[in-house]
Amino acid sequence: MLLEVENLNVYYGAIHALKGISFQVEEGEIVTLIGANGAGKTTSLDTISGLLRSRTGDIRFMGESIAHTAPHQIVEKQLAHVPEGRRIFLQMTVEENLDMGAFTRPKSEVDASLEQVFALFPRLKERRRQIGGTLSGGEQQMLAMGRALMSKPKLMMLDEPSMGLAPILVEQVFDIIKSLHKAGTTILLVEQNAQMALTIADRAYVLENGQITLTGTGSELIHSEQVQKAYLGG
Amino acid sequence: MEFLAYLVSGISLGSVYAIIALGYTMVYGIAKMLNFAHGDVIMIGGYISYIAAVNLGLPTLVAVVCAMAVCTVLGVVIEGLAYRPLRSAPSLAVLITAIGVSYFLQNSALLIWGANPKSYTPVVEGTLKLFGGQLSISNVSILTVAACIVIMIGLTLFTSKTKMGKAMRACSEDKGAAQLMGINVNRTISLTFAIGSALAAIAGALLCSFSPALMPTTGSMPGIKAFTAAVFGGIGSIPGAFLGGILLGIIESLARGYISTQLSNSIVFAVLIIILLVRPAGLLGKYVPEKV
């Protein structure tokens, strides 16, 4: 098991955001968490990457507990997180952003990774000297994903990569996720676009009000009446 | 020639402000806090270099290096003990703590070194005479301007070329995202305080060469003026702090020379207010609208 999340209870002050969540991601899978706004999807990812802390339970990555590990040390263990809203460094150039993504890597390996990222995102290569803030939304999402790839992750967590993008760009983003997966990266995907997410996912969990209410393979959930009603407009 | 003399003294005084302002602006840029104790670190730097040079008889350069070492440690300790526990507290709490640290340092200095001013000998002696002796520039002025330029260029290169320097800029923009890159934000902030405090020590030694009376309150006014200079140039911007410092020094020197010594500070702050009305982000500051 690559990632095991066990009984997380996370609070924002008095608000009980995650109520005893448990789920797993196996090596080589694409797993998705779907659910409405405020269901706890982003909170789950933020807790795994150490930005938030759970009061109970445990998080194990490659068998090792990371529940009390600092966020910057979790990245070193090759667990990358592309946060909601991309959060690229707007005042730094594309290349500097990618450099930051490789912060945990030895200098000798950075150039090779940079070439890999440029091969996957030729657009970023064209704009390597451009300031992040001048990129379009789609390009910023590419940069956020490319930046995470620079840390050579075993598991990549993506938070709403399709948010705010035109349909054609959403397709592109999902194509890239599929090719990352094919290249050997395990993916944990949080999405509001349930249709797209379930289509590419091996397994999925449905989050509602901080609890997991349903789980199954991507195709099981896409055909489930409950999911159709709540998330697919069926 | 009179004008030229005022200009030269303004530039050299401004260079001291600029060195202090660089420390202010670095800390503000990365930790997003106004370290009002920065001026008092300058004062401590002044005392340490005084003790090293006068009481221990060490060479000037060694004395300044001692002051830098002590202030670097002091800055890192202040950050770790007083500011780090408040990392997620409201900014007002941090501001009040900084004022508290400032008084703590002043009163500690009062306790240790007493209230009597110590008369400080300039770090370097001698003057350069130009135009057949009509314009004299002290060597300490030349040294100050040179030090300021070297520091400004050094910091610019550090933040644009080195890995740690880029990590500082990343922290300055988005600490959460920086953590997700594997950057240790606490360590980065410590480093910023270390650099800022080392600069304050240099400024302390230079400042005392300009106004040789060293007292526990010596750092306050230059600290506030340098903060003003940093805002004036665009807080968070390294070239902005440099430009702001130099301009502030020139305005102060000209106001003192042509208008009134007593009013010079008022004039300096009046100019600041006018500039900020026209350019709220300061001369070189970037006003970055939030992308929603």
Structural class of chain A: alpha/beta
CATH class of chain A: Alpha Beta
Per DSSP E runs of 2 or more residues, the count of β-strands of chain A stands at 10
CATH superfamily of chain A: P-loop containing nucleotide triphosphate hydrolases
Percent of residues in helices of chain A comes to 25-40%
Order of helices and strands of chain A: EEEHEEHEHHHHEHEHEEHH
Please give the most extensive interface between any two protein chains, plus how many residues each contributes. A-B, 28 and 20 residues
Based on helices, strands and strand pairing, what is the structural class of chain B?
A: mainly alpha
User: pLDDT average of chain A, as an integer?
Assistant: 93
Uncertain stretches of 5 or more adjacent residues of chain A = none
Dominant shape of chain B: globular
Strand order of the largest sheet of chain B: 1-4
